[in-house]
Amino acid sequence: MGNYRKLWFTLIGVLIVTFSLLGYYGAEVYRTAPPIPAKIETAGGEVLYTHDSILDGQTAWQSVGGMQLGSIWGHGAYQAPDWTADWLHRELLNWLDVAAERAHGKPFADIDAAAQAVLRDRMKTEYRTNTYNPETGVAMVSSTRADAIAKTALYYDQLFSDAPALHKTREHFAMKENTLPSAERRAQMMGFFFWTAWAAATERPGTTATYTNNWPHEPLIGNKPTAENMVWSVMSVVVMMAGVGFLVWGWAFLRKHDEADPEPPQHDPLSRVPLTPSQRALGKYLFLIVALFSFQVLLGGFTAHYTVEGQQFYGIDVSQWFPYSLVRTWHIQSALFWIASGFLAAGLFLAPLINGGKDPAYQKLGVDILFWALVVVVVGSFAGNYLAIAQIMPPEWNFWLGHQGYEYVDLGRLWQIGKFTGVAFWLVLMLRGILPAFRQPGDKNLLALLSASVIAIGLFYGAGFFYGERTHLSVMEYWRWWVVHLWVEGFFEVFATTALAFIFSTLGLVSVRMATTASLASASLFMLGGVPGTFHHLYFAGTTTPVMAVGAAFSALEVVPLVVLGHEAWEHWRLQHRAPWMARLRWPLMCFVAVAFWNMLGAGVFGFMINPPISLYYVQGLNTTPVHAHAALFGVYGFLALGFTLLVLRYIRPQLVFSDRLMATGFWWLNAGLVLMIATSLLPIGLFQFHASVSEGLWYARGEAFMQQPFIQTLRWVRTFGDVVFIVGALAVAWQVVSGVWGSRAPAVPAGATLAETRR
């Protein structure tokens, strides 16, 4: 540890404390998850649903795309309704009508105000009262509620079939005709929807809040923010301000001890190290990255268009072959594949450099095997998604080969295992280059941190195996966010920071001491807020108040390190002027500058906009979420992966000179397209929905009546301009990479010369 002992102990201490919190309250998630009753039955003994039928309904929901078609408990897609909020509201309205017919012989709307008030009060009491008996496993419902459930289920049965009466509604929700052809499976899925609404309306024993902390906002039964929600929302703001204050205070003092930048070398150090066979083999990775990137971007425009035409693409009915739920699945999965591949390629490029400029034995063979394994997983998972959503795949195969139904981990379990195996194999390839370097003299602290992040990336994706096809939804959400939040937003962030520090120190642009100090300090800051901050995704997923408290307090700290990103952007910008040869790295550096900007705006501003419990209570599942998702996922990790791709391309094709025209078009149009997409469409729609959610409820903010208003549709059409600008930028970058990979091969080494001499 040497001179970095305090920093290492700080990082280790942070990891021990934060993972202890994540584990302890993770066990709390298991202990307090909303029960799935053995039976839902009436006083007369009629069984409506059973534990197994509810879980069968969960698997049926997964097979139609799950979270890619509407959302459950606020998590998922945004075009169709949130099924929890929508079912609950429809069931409540049906209960009022059934009760009014029984008591007064006419619909609820036709009785006087006093009688309406009486029925509303009865309904609120009935729905919020917990009738679940843990000893028998039975939850009782009244005959009135049973009739309301039946009427609600009939609507959904027609919606997910091809009933002509609801054709226009399916079009508005971007659902294909006959979404779920089997009547039996539709009935089971209705049971799952009912159970999620039951948990959202039923008070947890010993409290006055429902199992989902009174989410969603539903005035008819008094679902409103809890007192704890208000308290921890205020506390999250206080914690964030305190964290920012202490960071600025520490930054002011620590910067006094910054050492001067080292004198940069006269020639690019990496260009004087001969390329290894495994590095030469990375060209096909770069081609795969931009191919998937282009595919993802085009699918993004296709998916966005479904929000205005529902089942058509400029008048052509394509929903029966490529429905919204499928193209949205592919859009998200291709993003994860190409971004992860960019990180893998950067690591594989670094491994021989760390190993003294030479490949370990059979490294090129390993690089080739990993590439084709990635291709198999991509093609196999995409084909499985198609067969599942088309309802061609047998139901019992769906989870393993088709569609898991959970956003960001949509691929079938077999393909998920393949992806994990590939990442673990990458870890082996990396360690074969890294471990021998520890036997060499010199400061190895930065290398140790890089190694730790590589190991974490290689292993933590495995958290996705801790849930199965029939796992309780609350438990599944806990582990899913280990993958989506902790693996991606946590360890990839540390790897990226450390890898960049390693590259810049190797280039002689920053000192090893400064690179190591900055990386260790950044890792501690990222992990401090990032690890327990995972819980901010679980406020309303059937968890208790302590989970909300920990999530709110620590997720606020995620904003803290982003405060200094302006300085980081400036640091990256100025590197291109430190030596004449750095001009050839201008565009990778510009991507890293963009990362710092979007990290501040997308992860910081837009992230905190939805993080406090009181905010998320109203905006979870609205278009404010994709504002954060687009700005953070592409703005941060997308630009980072593109920066790595261009950096690797620059060195494996040493004769290449980036086209300033192509790269300027690509870089600025990507940024402009992202700004237009957010500022002219996603954010305004999200803010209008926010108002609707506060004033009426989530059911209305996501409902057909609100979302089909002309001004909302106009905002959706306006997004086309941003999408087109973004697509042009993406294709320009893709063409630069493709032409660089295939049109600028590394020269052969003349006899008696080193490759370094040919690269000068």
TrEMBL record:
Protein name, entry field: Nitric oxide reductase subunit B
Keyword Hydrolase: no
One Pfam assignment: NorB_cytochrome_c-like
Keyword field: Membrane, Oxidoreductase, Transmembrane, Transmembrane helix
Signal peptide bounds: none
Residue ranges of domain Nitric oxide reductase subunit B cytochrome c-like in the record: 37-217
GO biological process: aerobic respiration
One GO CC term on file: membrane
Residues that span the membrane, as ranges: 7-27, 230-254, 285-308, 335-357, 369-393, 413-434, 446-467, 487-510, 517-535, 547-566, 587-610, 630-649, 669-690, 717-738
Enzyme class, broadest EC rank: oxidoreductase
Keyword Magnesium carried by entry: no
InterPro entries: Cyt_c_oxase-like_su1_sf, Cyt_C_Oxase_1, NorB_cytochrome_c-like
EC number assigned by the record: 1.7.2.5
Database matches in Gene3D superfamilies: Cytochrome c oxidase-like, subunit I domain
Coiled coil spans: none
A GO molecular function held by the record: heme binding
